[in-house]
């Protein structure tokens, strides 16, 4: 209002220069306000909880970068993961997951349960993941818990997991029964040609990190941000 009064009282010859000054001041104020909304936000803390598909995944740094760019706030991804382990091991690691008080927990724990030599029955795997989800919900009541299905297996790694689809379905069902989120990355992997898929997962189980980042991260950013990217 004061600016308008000064504008009306000002001689006509001075109005254009004063108008430019007001415009500049307005843009400067908008810029400071916009920056202040992004500055000072605490990091979004994510724990990736799983098997070698997480421990050796290599997609976590890309998730930090792309999600931070999307949300315009810092993102920190930590991993609680170990190659060759099952949900039985995961049940002993909940203190580590909870310790960082994450905002989001990403979980993939079916792959080794499904391996024949691990001797984890489908019923036991389903009970274990249910217990894991219940304990995490109790101890991290504000955290988003996202259960994931990862990449397909092939070769010998696939042969020792003949019922992996049933294990995925069981973990998905336990998540959905609790109203939790589930992300299936498999369809995105299956869009690759057979040759490209074989090149991307040369040992039949563990994707090359750079390919995993391209397949997994966009889906997670979409799931977590919900289309609210600020880019």
In short:
The two termini are 34 Å apart. The protein has 231 residues and is of the alpha/beta class.
What report would you give on this structure?
- The chain has about 230 residues and is of the alpha/beta class.
- It has two domains: about 35 residues; about 180 residues, Rossmann fold (3-Layer(aba) Sandwich).
- It contains twelve helices and five strands.
- The protein has a five-stranded parallel β-sheet with strand order 2-1-3-4-5, sandwiched between helices.
- Helix 7 links the parallel strand 3 and strand 4.
- The longest helix has 24 residues.
- It starts with a helix and ends in a 6-residue tail after the last helix.
- About 10% of the residues have low confidence.
* CATH topology-level name of the largest domain: Rossmann fold
CATH-scheme architecture of the largest domain: 3-Layer(aba) Sandwich
| CATH C-level label of the largest domain | Alpha Beta
Full CATH superfamily name of the largest domain: SGNH hydrolase
* Residues in helices, as a percent range: 40-55%
Structural class: alpha/beta
User: What sort of overall outline do the alpha carbons produce when their principal axes are compared?
Assistant: globular
């Amino acid at each position: 209002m004061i600016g308008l009064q000064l504008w009306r009282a000002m001689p006509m010859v001075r109005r254009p220069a004063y108008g430019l000054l007001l415009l500049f001041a307005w843009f400067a104020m908008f810029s400071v306000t916009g920056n202040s909304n992004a500055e000072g936000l605490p990091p979004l803390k994510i724990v990736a909880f799983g098997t070698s598909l997480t421990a050796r995944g290599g997609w976590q740094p890309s998730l930090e970068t792309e999600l931070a760019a999307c949300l315009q706030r810092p993102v920190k991804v930590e991993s609680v993961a170990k190659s060759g382990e099952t949900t039985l091991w995961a049940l002993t690691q909940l203190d580590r997951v909870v310790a960082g008080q994450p905002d989001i927990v990403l979980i993939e724990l079916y792959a080794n349960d499904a391996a024949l030599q691990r001797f984890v029955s489908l019923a036991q795997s389903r009970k274990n993941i249910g217990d894991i989800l219940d304990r995490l919900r109790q101890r991290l009541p504000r955290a988003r818990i996202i259960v994931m299905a990862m990449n397909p297996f092939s070769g010998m790694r696939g042969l020792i997991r003949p019922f992996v689809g049933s294990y995925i379905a069981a973990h998905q069902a336990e998540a959905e029964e609790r109203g939790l989120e589930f992300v299936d990355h498999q369809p995105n992997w299956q869009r690759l040609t057979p040759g490209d898929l074989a090149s991307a997962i040369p040992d039949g189980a563990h994707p090359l990190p750079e390919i995993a980042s391209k397949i997994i991260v966009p889906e997670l950013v979409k799931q977590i941000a919900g289309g609210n990217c600020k880019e």
